Amino acid sequence: MFEYHPTGSGAYEATLLRHHLLRAMYSSAAANLFGTTADYPVRVKRKTWVLNSTVTCAATPLRAGSPVVCSASLQDYDISPVGPPTGQLSWTVAQPPSPGGGTFGPPCNITALVPACGVSVTPAQSGNYSFRISYTPDVGDLYHSPGGLRDGPIPLLVGDATTTSVPVCVPNTVLANTNATCSFDVTNTTGFTAPLGGVTLSFTPNNIVANPLCTTAGNITHCTLTYNAPTPVGPVTATVSFHDPSGSYGDSDSGPAVPVLQVT
Length: 264
Prior knowledge:
Helix content is about 0%, strand content about 50%. It has no helices and 25 strands. About 25% of the residues are buried.
């Protein structure tokens, strides 16, 4: 028994790759036994990698429960390539260390004209994920072997998704120079921890007395603020947005500005 570790796949010849010729030789020390030689042709396919540096996702960090298309491309790492690899790329979760599973769209197709393709990726929960990408050559690709990520699984942060509610002001009709208390919630819709980050308030006209005071309970961050217009301004519209710079929680907003208060 022996092992053979080729350094290349062999030159292109006709419609196939030229065989590697392995020669086994036997010689006997016994005078009554003859030596023999046998040649064994072996066809070695070209090694194909998925390039880690080419992996991109339409949005990062990924969001738990939200599909995102992620793409990658291939490279034939053998010497004197005979042509680009063709086949399919598929994604899987590397467990461990990924905190949960995920669902994936169907494998995407790599062709001679399309060297990169995308697959829909939907992580099940938040955390630090690792993904594997596998390459399966077309049945008609006689030159390239199956492959995977050249530098190991791809690490991607997956954050929880959030929603931000429309502010509710109490009372919703006040006299000028009178305080109204307005509140809103930022809710973690895919996890169990309260979202941490920053909120941006847009009240028109802007007569917010101070920055909002926020408290957390369960998966909700609850914020309150005081609004006080010195003169009658009529309807007051508002919208709120949430952003976590760390990426652990997804951005969200309360939607277009809507009337939340009347100052008479």
